[in-house]
From TrEMBL, chain A:
Residues 2-78 form the Calcineurin-like phosphoesterase domain. Keywords: Hydrolase, Metal-binding. It comes from Micromonospora carbonacea. GO terms for molecular function: metal ion binding; UDP-2,3-diacylglucosamine hydrolase activity. GO terms for cellular component: membrane. InterPro entries: Calcineurin-like_PHP, Metallo-depent_PP-like, Metallophosphoesterase_sf, UCP008292. This is Metallophosphoesterase.
TrEMBL record, chain B:
It comes from Micromonospora harpali. This is BON domain-containing protein. It comes from the Bacteria. The lineage of its organism: Bacteria, Bacillati, Actinomycetota, Actinomycetes, Micromonosporales.
Amino acid sequence: MIRIAAVGDVHLDEDVVGRFRPALDELPDCADVLLLAGDLTRHGTEAEARCVAREFGGLGVPVVTVLGNHDHQCDQVPQVVKVLEEAGIRVLEGEGIVLEFPAGRLGVAGVKGFGGGFAGRCASDFGEPEMKAFVRTTNESAEALGAALRGLDCDLLVALTHYSPVPDTLAGEPLEIYPFLGSYQLGQAIDSAPTALALHGHAHAGSERGTTPGGVRVRNVAHPVIKQAYSIFHLGDHLDAGEVSRIGHSGIQQPWS
Amino acid sequence: MSEHRDSAAGTPAVTAGPPDEYVEAEIHRLLAEDPAVAEQGITVVRRERGLVLYGEVESPHRREEILRRVAERFPDVPVTSDIGVIRTQAPTQVEQLP
Ligand SMILES: [Fe+2]
Ligand SMILES: [Fe+2]
């Protein structure tokens, strides 16, 4: 079994630093990895990224993230990525990573993703250049996610995005804004690989659970949705029925109870 | 139309400020686009006694800042808030997935 902790949309700045830390200090006892689903900052400044590094760095478990739309606001993406990576937080955009755990190899592929809408109610690659650019951004992001997912050699595969791959987890948001919250192409990419779980954020007023048309479980882990520091998912019971304890980087054996 | 003629003559038909819907739209955009706020998840609801703001933010400071900015920009609109600060406790339960 692999234990995945996840949260998105923490929107850090100075005023939030320290709020997550008590719960994060407990995290290595109950999770093997922390996945962050984007919108780590309010405006995507280097200073805010440093707040993220302070709050989510040095946890004792690997931390993997994608960026969100807020992390792009100030056009400082390279600086933000640099600060995060220096703090040991791995930033995925159109690529994947394989993490080795006693229970098996966890593959995580991530993209920010983009809007566009869902089957039958979505934007089309047609008309003005602005519209075509919008839809092509969606398509390229989904293609990158699909390729990254299919390229990973692992025992358990997880897709990490900021935008939603399904409308299910948007329930609670106004229908009119669904096209700005996600796109079906992301779901299609997730279904193109043997994905076990898809995690996303961005829809602050959405709901927790959904499924892709191909049957992959989707969870919206946006902080305002889960209303706790992070959620924990246990996956891959089939990997090894006997070995549930973990001898990790922290060196402690801590079976989940 | 008559409004057009009125406003062309410099006497708008409505003098009591912009219609509520435009105020709502402006507040909504202010909350999303004002760098001091940058919140996309705040809902503006029209009630009998004015506008009520709903949603969840990451700190008490942000909640105060939202009210301050809205009051500053729309001093004549009565605005109250029911905005919550999102809890950050560790989870007590795990979701087991197949
Ligand atoms: Fe967000
Ligand atoms: Fe977002």
